[in-house]
Automatic annotation (TrEMBL):
Residues 1-79, 894-1078 form the VWFA domain. The keyword Electron transport does not apply. Keywords: Calcium, Disulfide bond, EGF-like domain, Glycoprotein, Membrane, Repeat, Secreted, Signal, Transmembrane, Transmembrane helix. InterPro entries: Compl_asym_regulator, TSP1_rpt, TSP1_rpt_sf, VWF_A, vWFA_dom_sf. Coiled coil: none annotated. It is found in: Membrane; Secreted, Extracellular space. This is Hemicentin-1. SUPFAM superfamilies: TSP-1 type 1 repeat, vWA-like. GO terms for cellular component: extracellular region; membrane. Transmembrane segments: none annotated. It is a single-pass membrane protein. It comes from the Eukaryota. The gene is HMCN1.
Length: 1101
């Protein structure tokens, strides 16, 4: 990228009078720009020519200024930073066009421009396309559905007992789609199949109840039975498998044995090591334990006594922190502290002192100090709110110089000021006044409606203006607090279940006075809270009965024997009141045929199996079938397969009755003394009953007594401890005693004596003697409570060496000591005061200027070593006199402005184009004997927006011309410049359209592209434009052409214009730089054709 930096401290020297310095510089710098070299201009000092700098620079952003040579250093970073290429970026996509078709798939198109920003300083063009298409309305048209052929019948879901076969067709030939109609008719057919009965296998009924046990104790047996009747086997079904009889043991519990206590266990560990705890010892009821329903031991299984009654050490614990002290400063960051004491509780009886610090500090009031807000300078007056009839212009300022911060005061006064403008009369639309105050609420409670009104008098509609839109009255709720409300019943609850199932019963329901409940002294609900109604008054259930069968339906086949059915309904009577539905099928089927056709023989159902040749142990049975379902007829085939079938049956073994085996030996005696029992057993295994045979008769268990004359030894057991005796001393530590005896029970029949001591001693303490308190050593001083302006350090000691106890005296003196610290003053950092008002702009018209504002480091000033305010004390910004400096144009002039409104111009650029035309019009004196203006817009077609004679008298003003410019449509079509030139010749530059005989005539043609050439045209764009502009030039109309952006065709512009009247602008945003030049060129030179009847005078260009 090539860059030229041009620096000067003055203006361009002009050698000849009448020559503009900007023209000299433009001609000199243009060769550099044509080579793509970026030109940056830098002016130093107060004698610089700002317009010279703008003319030299490639863009407005390439103009830099410095007040003096010392300030040049501050521009180094800005100059180096701003010289990078600017790559082009796309604008937002425009709206999608209408779809080309309504269905079946079409296209939509949308466009975008490479102007957000446009490429600059050698930056890349936008990547991608400026035009985008997408499919639309892709749904196909509606398709009505059609049935497929019927599918074959499905396999019957059952092999016997009657099933239903289905066959199907689907609505998929084709399927309905996109709103098409569905198929008419049914998609499924059904018929009965395999209706012969199925074999029913036998199943056991429930077991009968167990029979009575054979013995009352010591182990017996119980028997229960079942039958194969749930259901019984039918139609060749299998018999039940398994046994029909079952047995179990019963009454096996032994005889009762009463329990007796074992010896006491040793005392367990004390529950605490100090301060008085308890010890426990236990005994168990296991000497012997109660068995077989015997009684449990009487008395307690656990004993308890006191232990370790000496006092425990008490560790010191901190009290809660005290309140934080007042912060050392009110803002900008300070320090505050708080303390706590080790007295919750004091450490006692050799307990540990508190852990941690007794002093704590934290930062506070970190919030910055308040900054009061100050107004910026008043902004420029905004566009007038009305174009006629008196409007308002607004100028604004903001409270940001500086903005209020950290609870600083807001700016006083208004941020908005206004003044009247455009006061010439025109239609005045009505506007609402402010809403009036709300009227009093019509009710005092329960919710009312308040009204507020306004009138259409701000201003009232006048001179044909529109009336105000909207309502003149608004409303809102008021006094919604509850009024005294009477109670109202809730919804009735559901009725309870009826007291009977049929024949008439009763149901209850209830309600509560809660919808709402009475409140604010309202009345309770009137009426009953419960209700009774009759129910189930219908007769008791009626079982359904079949009607007679209807007529037979059509046969399913046309020959060879088909099936037809008939139906009956369960309506004779119908089931009612929960009666059972009819048994059996509602459909009856029979064979049918219309005329003979070959019928193949088919087996009839198998006949029932014959009776088994044996009842058990394995036999045989057979069954037959005949070829009669149907028999072969009319030449049909005989049945395939056998007509007889044999199978084995009753293969279960025959019943075998059980018989007892020999008795087992007697068991050992259950007790070694005081009487026990012995048991012996036998089993029913000689042989074991099987295949339904009977169980052995008699008991399988036998019992006898043993060791009845031998007494058992009884071990001795301790009684409970007696009460403690008195303490051996009246104060301090002593001892006390208690005793027990071995009589619970006493040892007998050789039993062991009690183990352990019969006496026990423990320590005791009546009351402690008074102990006076004594101070501990002083602790370390805490950190200072403040970092500056004077703080306090503290240290503590505690009355714990020892602590006073048992009425002893407290320590004399104080437990805390304070000394001053950090008495030096705090540093204060400087902070900026408010910005001063902006200085006036260095220029009032014609382009860029400068303005400055300043501030002081005095809010507060830095002190005691504080930092100075960061940043600069002054700020310089660019400012603009964008309105062109006044050009006097006081000659009669008919000026036509021809505007490109094609689709290549974005919405934003179209608005910039309108603003440019406003500025252009404002430079002419629009009046009867001076400038008259006409406006033509063109894209695919051209139309006249304003003729020379459309405005006259008081209406002939620049303001009314600009209204027409503002309302000009943006057509977004193609670029047919030739149609606009012909429209100007035929409908604007004519006497009928207000063209004057003795006035100068100028047409300004603006475009951002090139002439659109139709496909079938045989002429080039240059030929088309030369031919279209000739009639205007023949009338003496001077044509000025203006190309905007890179797509404007320079040769086309030259073909349109009169001589060298060709202007160009790099972008729409830079059009404002041409306003002055265009006004001056239009006003000071005109083109006429000598001798032509429209021309007042001839001038040489």
């Amino acid at each position: 990228m090539e860059i030229v930096l041009v620096m000067t401290d003055g203006k361009q020297t002009v050698e000849k009078d009448g020559v503009l310095s900007s023209d000299i510089l433009r001609d000199a710098v243009q060769p550099l720009k044509d080579k793509g070299i970026r030109v940056i201009s830098l002016g130093v000092g107060k004698g610089i020519g700002l317009f010279d700098l703008v003319t030299l620079a490639s863009t407005d952003l390439d103009v830099y200024t410095a007040t003096d040579f010392e300030e040049l250093e501050t521009l180094v970073t800005e100059l180096t930073k701003g010289n990078c290429p600017v790559h082009g970026n796309w604008s937002d996509w425009g709206e999608w066009s209408n779809c080309t078709v309504s269905c079946g798939g079409g296209e939509q198109t949308r466009y975008r421009d490479c102007d957000n920003p446009p490429p600059a300083y050698g930056g890349r063009e936008c990547l991608g396309v400026s035009e985008e298409t997408r499919p639309c309305n892709e749904l196909p048209c509606a398709v009505d559905g059609g049935w497929t052929e019927w599918k074959p019948w499905e396999i019957c879901p059952v092999t016997c007992g009657g099933g239903i076969q289905n066959r199907y067709r689907t609505c998929t030939d084709p399927p309905p789609a996109h709103g098409g109609k569905d198929c008419s008719g049914e998609g499924v057919l059904t018929r009965p199949c395999n209706e012969e009965p199925c074999p029913v296998h036998g199943n056991w009924a429930r077991w009968e109840d167990w029979r009575q046990c054979s013995v009352s104790c010591g182990g017996g047996t119980q028997i229960r039975s079942r039958t194969c009747t749930n259901p019984p086997p039918q139609f060749g079904g299998r018999n039940c498998s398994g046994e029909s009889q079952n047995e179990r043991s019963c009454n096996e519990q032994r005889c009762p044995i009463h329990g007796n206590w074992a010896r006491w266990e040793d005392w367990r560990q004390c529950s605490v090591s100090c301060g008085g705890g308890t010890q426990i010892r236990s005994r168990t009821c296991t000497n012997p334990p109660p068995q077989f329903g015997g009684r449990n031991c009487s008395g307690e299984s656990q004993n308890e006594r006191s232990c370790n009654e000496q006092r425990c050490p008490i560790d010191g614990n901190w009290n809660g922190w005290g309140d934080w002290e007042v912060c050392s400063v009110t803002c900008g960051g300070g320090i505050q502290s708080r303390t706590r004491t080790c007295t919750n509780p004091w450490p006692r009886f050799e307990g540990r002192d508190c852990n941690g610090e007794e002093f704590e500090e934290r930062p506070c009031n970190d919030n910055p100090c308040p900054i009061d807000g100050r107004w910026t300078r008043w902004g420029d007056w905004e566009q007038c709110s009305m174009t006629c009839g008196g409007g308002v212009q607004v100028s604004r300022r903001s409270c940001t110089d500086p903005a209020p911060a950290f609870e600083g005061a807001n700016c006083e006064g208004d941020s908005l000021r206004s003044r009247s403008c455009n006061e010439e009369e025109c239609p005045v639309d009505g506007r609402w006044t402010k809403w009036g105050a709300w009227e009093p609420c019509p009710v005092s409670c329960g919710g009312g409606i308040q009204l507020s009104k306004r009138s259409c008098t701000n201003p009232a509609p006048a001179f044909g203006g529109d009336d105000c839109e909207g309502d003149s009255v608004r409303s809102r709720s008021c006094n919604e607090r509850g009024c005294p409300a009477d109670g109202n019943w809730s919804v009735w609850s559901e009725f309870t279940l009826c007291s009977v199932f049929c024949g008439g019963g009763r149901q209850n329901r209830s309600r509560t006075c809660t919808n709402p409940p009475p409140k604010n002294d309202g009345k309770y609900c009137a009426g009953e809270s419960s209700e009774i109604r009759p129910c189930n008054t219908l007769p008791c259930p009626v079982d359904g009965g079949w009607s007679s069968f209807g007529e037979w339906g059509s046969c399913s086949l046309t020959c060879g024997g088909g099936v037809q059915d008939r139906q009956r309904t369960c309506t004779n009577p119908p089931p009612a009141h929960s009666g059972r539905p009819c048994d059996g099928s509602s459909v009856e089927t029979r064979f049918c045929k219309q005329f003979p056709c070959p019928v193949h023989g088919n087996w009839a159902r198998w006949q029932s199996w014959s009776i088994c040749s044996k009842s058990c142990g394995g036999g045989d049975q057979s069954r037959m079938r005949t070829c009669t379902n149907p028999p072969p007829l009319h030449g049909g085939r005989q049945c395939l397969g056998r007509n007889k079938e044999t199978r084995s049956c009753n293969r279960r073994p025959c019943p075998v009755d059980g018989n007892w085996a020999d008795w087992k030996p007697w068991s050992s005696c259950s007790r070694s003394c005081a009487g026990g029992k012995q048991i012996r057993w036998r089993s029913c295994t000689n042989p074991q009953p099987s295949s339904g045979g009977s169980w052995c008769i008699g008991s399988r268990q036998e019992t006898k007594s043993c060791n009845e004359d031998k007494l058992c030894p009884v071990n001795g057991g301790w009684s409970f401890w007696g009460y403690w005796g008195r303490c051996s001393v009246s104060c301090g530590a002593g001892v006390r005693h208690r005793a027990r005896t071995c009589n619970n029970p006493p040892p007998a029949h050789g039993g062991a004596r009690c183990r352990g001591e019969s006496k026990e001693v423990s320590y005791c303490e009546s009351s402690s003697c008074p102990v006076d308190g004594n101070w501990s050593q002083w602790g370390r001083f805490s950190r200072c409570s403040k970092r500056c302006w004077g703080g306090i350090k503290r240290r503590y000691r505690f009355c714990s060496n020892p602590r006073p106890s048992n009425g002893g005296k407290e320590c004399p003196g104080e437990g805390v000591e304070e000394i001053p610290c950090n008495t030096r003053p705090c540093s204060v950092n400087g902070n900026w005061g408010r910005w001063d008002n902006w200085s006036p702009c260095s220029v009032t018209c014609g382009g860029l200027g400068l303005r400055i504002r300043r501030r002081q480091c005095n809010n507060p000033p830095p002190s005691h070593g504080g930092r100075y305010c960061p940043g600069s004390s002054s700020f310089t910004a660019s400012c603009a006199g964008w309105l062109p400096c006044e050009v006097n144009c006081n000659i009669p002039l008919d000026f036509a402005i021809i505007v490109d409104t094609s689709g290549s111009i974005s919405r934003r650029n179209f608005h910039l184009l309108q603003r440019f035309i406003h500025s252009l019009v404002d430079g002419f004196k629009v009046a009867k004997d001076y400038t008259h203006i006409a406006i033509i817009e063109y894209s695919t077609a051209a139309s006249v927006q304003l003729r020379f004679n459309d405005l006259s008298g008081r209406n002939l003003t620049r303001n009314n011309v600009n209204k027409k410019v503002q309302s000009m449509p943006h057509k977004k079509g193609f670029t047919f410049i030739d149609k606009a030139l012909r429209k100007a010749d035929q409908d604007v530059f004519t006497y009928a359209a207000g063209m004057r005989y003795d006035s100068d005539k100028v047409a300004l043609v603006m475009t951002d592209g090139e002439q659109t050439v139709e496909k079938n045209s045989t002429k080039s764009d240059i030929e088309i434009l030369t031919e279209a502009s000739k009639p205007l030039k023949d009338k003496g109309v001077r044509i000025i052409s203006l190309g905007i952006g890179r797509r404007a065709n320079k040769k086309s512009l030259e073909a349109i214009s009169s001589g060298s009247d060709v202007y160009s602008s790099e972008s729409f945003s830079k059009l404002r730089l041409l306003v002055r030049k265009l006004k001056k060129g239009t006003c000071q030179a005109t083109v006429t054709a000598a001798g032509y009847k429209y021309v007042r005078r001839t001038k040489k260009i």
